[in-house]
Amino acid sequence: MSDKVSVPEIFGMNVFNDAMMREHLPKKVYEELKNTIERGALLNSEIADIIANAMKDWAIERGATHYTHWFQPMTGITAEKHDSFLAPPSNGKAIMEFSGKELIKGESDASSFPSGGLRATFEARGYTAWDCTSPAFLREDAAGITLYIPTAFYSYTGEALDKKTPLLRSCEAVSRQAMRIVRLFGNDRAKKITVSCGAEQEYFLIDKDLYKQRKDLIFTGRTLFGAAPPKGQEMDDHYFGSIKERVACFMHELNVELWKLGVPAKTQHNEVAPAQHELAPIFDDCNQATDHNQLIMEAMKRIAGHHNLTCLLHEKPFAGVNGSGKHVNWSLCTDDGQNLLDPGKTPHENAQFLVFLTAIIKGVDMYPELLRLSASSPGNDHRLGSQEAPPAIISIFLGDQLQDIFDQIEHGEATSSLQGGRMRVGVNTLPALKKDATDRNRTSPFAFTGNKFEFRMPPSSGSISGPNFSLNTIVAEVLREFADELEQAEDLHIAVHELIRRTYVEHKRIIFDGNGYSDEWIQEAEHRGLPNITNSVDAVDAFLDDKVVELFGRHGVLNKLELQSRAEIRYEAYVKQINIEAKTMIDMASKQIRPAVVKYAGEVARSVAALKAVGVDASAEEELLNDINANVKLFHEKLKLLTEVTEQAGMLKGDSKSQAIFYRDYVFETMKELREPADRLEMLVDEKAWPLPTYGELLFNI
Ligand code: ADP
Ligand code: MG
Q1: Residue % of the chain over a pLDDT of 70
Q2: Average pLDDT of the chain, as a whole number
Q3: What predicted TM-score, i.e. pTM, was given to this entire model?
Q4: In this structure, which long-range contacts are made by residues 401-410, counting pairs with CB atoms below 8 Å and at least 24 apart in sequence?
Q5: How many angstroms does the Cα of residue 315 sit away from the middle of ligand 1?
Q6: What pLDDT was estimated at residue 120?
Q7: At how many degrees (to 10) do helices 492-507 and 400-410 cross?
């Protein structure tokens, strides 16, 4: 039985949040800090010293010995280097110190992080700068308690080396443009617009002892071999099924840990595949949601170990059953609490809502390649476009009600189907839109779900920074165009109506309410001119596209050099990932599978000889032996081929893009060919002789 917990008591107890700051800081300092957090005002060094000192006292009171600047390099996970609060001892006595300088800026000679050419090792200075918009927190583990300070990470010359910097820049960009729109609609109270984001996290839990017996899981996070078990997910008995006690204990400990960190973990359930689960927090400002998602992933991996479980965050740990994604729910919200994607109750709000909605439609249609890239990773290549996940083609699901409104607007003389009256956008005959008036579409990669969009493509193991900053910037750009136009209008209502109608007509090809998994959609999408980018290597081109360079440049989110470096990092990461997978496959095939099968074939051969020697019909045994032998032969050939192409790939000269293409077209393809005979052999060999835990054991053991 687990201990009872009081959520209100523990929630945020390890966070130096607003309440803590108010309590621990002099009033004037608190106000200055708030001014910085809310309006980006500069902090002076005296104030920083006071804050650092208060933060240190608070942390030490709770048992912290160390602090760390916590940052998000281009590896997609987080990084940290711990320093103790210890200052040079005086008379042999320890003094604990933490200055404003140390709080605000750290220098990290973290030259081994991917920089895509932005830093050579001889000019490896990298800085971490305090992001005061995401609160510092204490992390406890068996080793002790550490103060974590969320930071941005950039180079000596000021280029972003991380996932946080462009995110923060994009939040400012979209706020700036969205403010212009809400002002047009008469909102003069709001001071800024925030991006709200709720990321649903899917994951697998498997037994740790079994995990340790599989090099593929250890080195690559996914199984590289494995025949389908007799039962998969066809019974739909795992989805939303009752949660097994061992898993429930894990979830409980995870929730408690997250609540203490101020992560509003809310929903948990079993997912479609056996051994698959999901956690969704309550949405938050997207910078914090991004930090929180990193904490969620990290806590999942760590806490699983306490229950002798291993958490797999890979997008496709097992062939043949669903993979994992991360649904990024996204909306815009004024600081006075209005969700701009909530259709609202009055016609006036509806018109503003439709402007934002139309901007998103246009943005997605203008930059589908960028969104596709933001959701791409080598692991997600297994998921996007197969039968379970969103297709690789970006489209938008609106639902019947909104579709109907747009149809009416398109044909000018719109008649409201809801109220039967005449309708013009922005005039008082516009009907109130109802929330949830339409059904859902689970196959759409980008679906309107009542008062937010749900971007369903992003990879389960990746940072949600990319999907967020891409969306933010795209939407900022279209809002900029819209604001430029509407601010000049003589009659706002007429201009809004015209803008929505025109934009909808130009961009409605991106809207698709049908089955995204069907083959017809692939053809239809091609007919509509929508891109179908099937893999993460091709996706990278988007970063180098002039249109995208201009977009990011205009809004100050990423400059050309930063984009080029990110493209470089993507190619390199792909090459490294596939190289590790190929080498792991070669290792397992040579040292585990082949010896086991050869040995077993020897036993069968001896049986055949023995049966024949006593004059008994050995045709069944002989058939089995031939079958094994034929597959071993193929297996052996493919193993040799994989070894060759992997060696060849390793010696490739030339740019990283062509290397990535080689890995995709030859190494990755040969890996698939090697897997086939191996999985057949698994079905031919005595299970006691098979050297790896099977899919059945891995997926149904808990
Ligand atoms: P689903 O049925 O898709 O699971 P939920 O209503 O449970 O939908 O919401 C899923 C996620 O969307 C949660 O993280 C939730 O907090 C988040 N969410 C809800 N409203 C918003 C919003 N306005 N902006 C961003 N995310 C939101
Ligand atoms: Mg959802």
Answers
A1: 93
A2: 91
A3: 0.94
A4: 401/433, 401/434, 401/437, 401/438, 402/357, 402/433, 402/438, 402/448, 403/511, 403/513, 405/354, 405/433, 406/500, 406/504, 406/508, 409/354, 409/497, 409/500, 409/501, 409/504, 410/501, 410/504, 410/505, 410/508
A5: 21
A6: 60
A7: 110
Tens digit of each residue's pLDDT (9 = 90 or more) over 4-59: 889 999 999 999 999 999 999 999 999 999 988 888 777 888 899 999 999 999 99
Ligand nearest to the CA of 194: 1
Among 193, 285, 329, 471, say which to mutate for ligand 1: greatest number of ligand atoms within 8 Å of CB: 329
Residue nearest to atom 14 of ligand 1 (CA): 198
Q: List pLDDT tens digits, range 147-162.
A: 999 999 988 888 898 9
Answer whether 79's CB lies under 8 Å from 73's CB: yes
Cβ atoms of 453 and 341 closer than 8 Å:
yes
* C-beta of 240 in contact with ligand 1 (< 6 A): no
Q: Is 379 in the pocket of ligand 1 (CB under 6 A)?
A: no
Q: Is the CB of 271 under 6 A from ligand 1?
A: no
Q: Which atom of ligand 1 lies closest to the CA of 329?
A: 26
**Smallest Cα–Cα separation from 288: which of 263, 323, 311, 315?**
263
Residue 267 in contact with ligand 1 by CB distance below 6 A:
yes
| 245: Cβ contacts below 8 Å, ≥ 6 apart | none
What percentage of the chain exceeds 90 in pLDDT? 74
More confident residue, 89 or 383: 383
- The alpha carbon of 471 and the centre of ligand 2 are apart by a number of angstroms equal to 18
What would the two tokens of residue 79 be?
Answer: 């990084």
State in Å: Cα 455 to ligand 2 middle: 9
339 lines ligand 1 (CB under 6 A): yes
Distance, CA of 261 to CA of 14 (rounded, Å) = 5
